[in-house]
Amino acid sequence: MNIMRTLTIIAVGLFMTTASAQENVQPQVIISYEGKSVTTEGKTFTTLKELPITSVKNQYRSGTCWDFATLGYLESEILRKTGKTYDLCEMFVVNKDYMDCATHYVRMHGYSQISEGGSCEDVLEVIRQHGICPEEAMPAPGSLTGDSLANFKVFFPELERTVSSIVWNEGKLELNRFTTEEQAPLRNPAPKPHWQDSVQAVIDQYVGACPETFVYEGKMYTPKTFAESLGLDLNDYVSLTSYTHHPFNQWFVIESPYKWRLKPSYNIPIEQLMDILDQTLDAGYTVAWGGDVSGDFYRNQSLAYLPDGVTPTQEMRQEQWNNWEFTYDHVMLIYGKAVDEQGKPYYLVKNSWGTNYPYKGTWYMSRDYIALNTTYLFLNRHALSADLQKVVA
């Protein structure tokens, strides 16, 4: 059974303001199901748990959900710990991470990927190695190219060409685009000296140069001292996953093109993973979610659940991962729990596609949908049981 093609998704037009146990009633809406438009009654949600988060952002025309979601997650962590609201700079992370990715590509002699995508671990590694700055310390996203938000339509192809030309004499990115060895471009004998300068110039041109120092709330910082001031322990965070092609209760690197840093996740059964998600939210911690929103998902939709009668299983997860039906293509922030009019559990999920959509940027995603389509959960290890904390320490 092709689960993604039979996924039921409803587009709704009533935005939500939530409070504990507050009801939100939708009007009649039109849904798309197996290519047919039908009318269905709206749903009613009761919010059971809603944790504080920062404002919804808009990644716009950039493949940086991993960046926006993870910084949003860290902002919620700071808010939980200190009560202070920060707006951390996504383009600082883009600048440093894309340079790191280019360096990895060259050191791998072109046998890796240059991609807009990434994962939660990328953001942590950037902050660990380079620090971070507030949004106001760099040019607003898109402003250097005459846009009002991040737009990588011109930027990223130029970055690809620049990085690829360092390795290949014809600037080709992948040998497997060619049918014979003779057609493939020749690898350059060695990178040119100071090749990093040309890559950094492209990045700085489109997203802005990272500041060496800046003033925030009347105090001078470097990116590293600012990161230190946030009160985060970057060793607190862990990635959990659930697949059977690796043993449970062990670490492994999820095989996804967007996880080029090869940071491992701890593998546990899906029932345990979902219990941890619920326990983490109940304990007052938000969770960054990496998973699949392909298939019938589009930007104007804010509600996802599986068809009646479909119960996600470990075997179903593995099958759709093995046959590429399921991908790792999006990262968002889970910040609450709700139930619909039938008592079925849902999660409140903060997206990074702006607020001009149903629920002003929040999605309702059913527990079953999350169970089937989660690649990994990224969370604070202190929300875990004492026994599991010891294992993932």
Describe what this molecule looks like in 3D.
This protein is an alpha+beta fold and 393 residues long. Helices cover 30% and strands 19% of the residues. The chain is built from ten helices and 16 strands. The strands form two sheets. Strands 1, 2, 3, 4, 5, 8, 9, 10, 11, 12, 13, 14, 15 and 16 form a 14-stranded mixed sheet that branches. It has a two-stranded antiparallel sheet with strand order 6-7. Strand 3 and strand 4 (36-40) form a beta hairpin. The protein is globular and about 60 Å long. Residues 1-41 have low confidence and may be disordered.
The CATH class of the largest domain, by name, is Alpha Beta
The number of distinct structural domains comes to 2
Q: In the CATH hierarchy, what is the architecture of the largest domain at level 2?
A: Alpha-Beta Complex
Q: What order do the SSEs take from the amino end to the carboxyl end, as H and E? A: EEEEEHHHHHEEHEEEHEEHEEEHEH
Low-confidence sequence ranges: 1-41
CATH topology of the largest domain: Cathepsin B, Chain A
Seen as an oligomer or otherwise, the chain set is single chain
Count of discrete alpha- or pi-helical segments spanning 4 or more residues: 10
Shape: globular
Distance between the ends: 39 Å
CATH homologous superfamily assignment of the largest domain: Cysteine proteinases
Largest sheet: 14 strands, mixed
